[in-house]
Amino acid sequence: MARDESATPSAASRGGDDVDAHVDDRSDLGRLTIEIVPFETTHAEGFAGLVADTLREFGFKHDPELDSDLDDPIGTYVALWIALAGHEVAGSVALRDLGDGAYKLKRMYLRPAHRGRGLGGRLLATALDWARANDARVVRLDTAEGMVAARRLYESAGFVQLPDGEVPRQGQQRLAYELRLRTP
């Protein structure tokens, strides 16, 4: 009987080169299943590593002043979620309370192996669902000009780019966005 290739994920979509990989093998389930969970202190090292790796990937260096949230994520953010692939921190998203029903979306990062598979959309939806449930008026964010895929995701969720960007970080232009959830 001929194998139905249309029902089998391509090697590229699985993130590997072996078309005959055993994706139904129980040992692979932890790698294939991504769970979004609230941040716990046990995630701190993986979260900090994700942030450092992502900053480096996009040409930024760790800045103790700008990255002080890594010292106390629970005290910094009103909500913080981690995407776990098995025990690996594969992604994150956080919300900082700005007061008066405004929140800032922060640390929306994914490891390269987990991009392009809908995980960013799931993380963003988790944060926006929380914001709506907590009567948020507006969610703001800033992102690097070079983070094109992230910008597309934000725009597809209804975020609108603001005319004035934030202060550049380490010489790179930052673009400011906001999503109005309700009128004041």
Structure description:
The chain is of the alpha+beta class. The protein has one domain (22-180): Aminopeptidase, CATH 3.40.630.30. It contains 6 helices and 7 strands. It has helices at 11-14, 29-32, 44-57, 73-76, 119-133, 148-156, and strands at residues 34-38, 79-85, 88-99, 102-110, 138-144, 160-161, 174-180. Strands 1-2-3-4-5-7-6 form a 7-stranded mixed sheet. The longest helix is centred in the last third of the chain and has 15 residues, at 119-133. The chain is globular, with a radius of gyration of 18 Å. It starts with 10 loop residues before the first helix and ends with a strand. Mean pLDDT is 82; it is low at 1-31.
How is this fold's topology laid out?
Blueprint (H helix, E strand, L loop, with lengths): L10 H4 L14 H4 L1 E5 L5 H14 L15 H4 L2 E7 L2 E12 L2 E9 L8 H15 L4 E7 L3 H9 L3 E2 L12 E7 L4
Parallel strand pairs: 4-5
Antiparallel strand pairs: 1-2, 2-3, 3-4, 5-7, 6-7
Query: How far is the N terminus from the C terminus?
Result: 63 Å
And the CATH topology? Aminopeptidase
Mean pLDDT over the residues: 82
Structural class, by secondary structure, is alpha+beta
Instruction: Name the helix and strand elements from N-terminus to C-terminus, one letter apiece.
Output: HHEHHEEEHEHEE
What is this entry, summarized?
With 184 residues, the chain is of the alpha+beta class.
